[in-house]
């Protein structure tokens, strides 16, 4: 169980200064060629990601997020001619409807139409009808598309690269901003800790006797948003859909019974697992939304070890890793990473943490 925080944290406790040149704009030449900061002990150790199998033990269980990033970004114009940029946040199952963020000089009204361009940026590919506002705080737009949403997005959309990546998406992003085991479409951001895995690392893990299981959590755009309130208790967390299979629940139970460790690959996996264990009945399979907000003092029930990338200052994910590994320890690791010129954020390097 995590210890209670020594003092009430504010958002400033999770801020840090990052030289802009450390923000990775492109992935490493090889997925497993990125660096790995081993932060399990008091003294950080600089490693390569391909060393990961040697840092795990036979009987450990790696749990991956198998979500698939969709080409969720669209560009177009309103009927009045004003430009529009859309980011599809959620596809409503079994319908032609989506929830989306819309950026425009003036918000479109219900009943109006938005004309979206194809990949060439010039030709209008399809029109969408604005049904109204939606989402927990009314900040999203409910759109009706003229066809199956995933097919339309795959054909006409753009890879939704994070806001700190300064180039437009290209063929390399289509391949590298996606895990090698992506299966279930629906995310608008990649589970970035899993981007480092390639066939060789997966084979080495299997040879080491490390088991694998999966969850699905469709990462939303809210993952990039800083916390804008001073006191953490005032922050309203964004919601994301996840599914935990019974097979993964069973694999975790077997791992626990044999004395192995549950290793979450990424904060999205950790959020799904800990969300599914919040009730009185322990870890429960199923599909649902989660708005879990993990801050120092959180009582972890499932995850023993976390593999993660480096996160944005003042973000909920900085708070999550601080809750998991200790606030002072995380600050020391980030200071080390900056001194040693690690690459940060989605296309950056990784870090391995034990629960403290």
Plain-language structure description:
This protein starts with 34 loop residues before the first strand and ends with a strand. A nine-stranded mixed beta sheet has the order 2-1-17-16-14-3-12-13-15, covered by helices on one side. It is an alpha/beta fold. The chain has eight helices and 17 strands.
What would you say about this model in short?
The chain has 356 residues and is of the alpha/beta class. It is built from 8 helices and 17 strands.
Topology, pairings included?
Layout: E1 35-38, E2 45-48, H1 52-55, E3 61-65, E4 67-69, E5 73-78, E6 83-91, E7 97-104, E8 113-117, E9 124-134, E10 140-144, H2 149-156, H3 171-176, E11 184-187, H4 199-208, E12 211-217, E13 240-244, H5 246-257, E14 262-265, H6 267-275, E15 286-290, E16 305-309, H7 316-325, H8 327-339, E17 350-354
Parallel strand pairs: 1-17, 3-12, 3-14, 4-11, 14-16
Antiparallel strand pairs: 1-2, 5-6, 5-8, 6-7, 7-10, 8-9, 9-10, 12-13, 13-15, 16-17
Helix pairs in contact: 7-8
The CATH superfamily label of the largest domain reads QueA-like
CATH names the topology of the largest domain as QueA-like
How many DSSP E strands? 17
Strand content: 25-35%
Count the helices. How many? 8
List key phrases describing it.
20% helix, QueA-like, alpha/beta, single chain, nine-stranded mixed beta sheet, 356 residues, 8 helices
């Amino acid at each position: 169980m995590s210890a209670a925080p020594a003092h009430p944290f504010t958002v400033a406790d999770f801020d840090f200064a990052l030289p802009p040149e450390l923000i990775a704009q492109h992935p490493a030449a090889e997925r497993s060629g990125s660096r790995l900061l081993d932060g399990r002990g008091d003294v950080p150790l600089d490693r390569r990601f391909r060393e990961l199998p040697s840092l795990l033990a036979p009987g450990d269980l790696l749990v991956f997020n198998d979500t698939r990033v969709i080409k969720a970004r669209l560009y177009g114009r309103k009927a009045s001619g004003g430009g529009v940029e859309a980011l599809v946040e959620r596809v409503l199952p079994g319908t032609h409807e989506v929830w989306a963020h819309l950026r425009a000089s003036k918000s479109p009204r219900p009943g109006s139409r938005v004309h979206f361009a194809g990949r060439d940026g010039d030709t209008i590919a399809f029109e969408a009808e604005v049904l109204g506002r939606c989402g927990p705080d009314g900040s999203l737009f409910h759109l009706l598309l003229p066809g199956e949403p995933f097919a339309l997005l795959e054909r006409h959309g753009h890879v939704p690269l994070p806001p700190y990546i300064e180039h437009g998406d290209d063929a390399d992003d289509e391949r590298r901003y996606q895990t090698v085991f992506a299966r279930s479409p629906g995310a608008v951001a990649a589970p970035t800790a899993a981007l480092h895995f390639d066939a060789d690392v997966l084979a080495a893990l299997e040879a080491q006797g490390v088991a694998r299981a999966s969850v699905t959590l469709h990462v939303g755009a809210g993952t990039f948003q800083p916390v804008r309130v001073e006191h953490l208790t005032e922050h309203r967390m964004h919601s994301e859909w996840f599914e935990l299979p019974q097979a993964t629940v069973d694999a975790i139970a077997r791992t626990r019974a044999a004395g192995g460790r549950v290793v979450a690959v990424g904060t999205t996996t950790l959020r799904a697992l800990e969300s599914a264990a919040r009730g009185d009945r322990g870890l429960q399979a199923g599909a649902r939304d989660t708005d879990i907000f993990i801050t120092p003092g959180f009582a972890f029930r499932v995850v023993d070890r976390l593999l993660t990338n480096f996160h944005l200052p003042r973000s909920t994910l900085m708070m999550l890793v601080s809750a998991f590994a200790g606030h002072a320890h995380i600050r020391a690791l980030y200071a080390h990473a900056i001194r040693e010129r690690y690459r940060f954020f989605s296309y950056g390097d990784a870090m391995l943490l034990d629960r403290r």
